[in-house]
Amino acid sequence: MTKTAELKGGSFTLSALHLVDGDIQKAADFLKQKVEQAPHFFTAAPVVIDVSQAGENIDFNELNQRIRQAGVIPVGISGCKGNIQREQAKEAGFAIMNAARHTKATETAETVTMEPTRIITNPVRSGQQVYAKNCDLVVMSHISAGAEIIADGCIHIYGTLRGRAIAGANGQPNAKIFCHNLQPELISIAGNYWLSDNIQDEFWGKQVVISLADSNLNIEPLAL
Prior knowledge:
Keywords: Cell cycle, Cell division, Septation. This protein folds into 2 domains: about 15-100, ACT domain (Alpha-Beta Plaits, 2-Layer Sandwich); about 110-220, 3 Solenoid (Pectate Lyase C-like). About 20% of the residues lie in helices and about 30% in strands.
């Protein structure tokens, strides 16, 4: 019998939008601003919406529409309060997401067999993407604005970072980003990200190490 398709498990990084109240328009405006700040990263990106803090009266049809108008694609809802809310979300076209336990995700990330470090000697130019699967990534040159480097492990940048750097892409919380000149559009570790406007002036253009502490990004001077 000829195969027409296969259904397999996969591992993908999804952004999660946490609603802090029931104001859908305010959340959509916030999301639209983020899309405008980093369009290469967020435009048409999938997003999961956490409604655990948004109360019980949620118009899921409006939520779906507003999020799409902001420029991303809502794929699922998490944090529903009971079966009625879950049914309302499904009727509006959302998948129902069950958040994995952090400890389980951490165990999974730690059991991945790491490969030898990938080393890039040429500049990574605008529009290019470099992915170091199951390994660390070393870039000996610059990363231009509009370029993206991704690693399941740590990232080491010996030039200027003007594009996007995503470490711990498989959920590894112990991943770090080492950078000799920090001027990024976006930095991310294990799904936690900052845009350029989140970075303190004291670290802009400096040698730094970026790590994750209590699910928050942390930047410190790089001591050589």
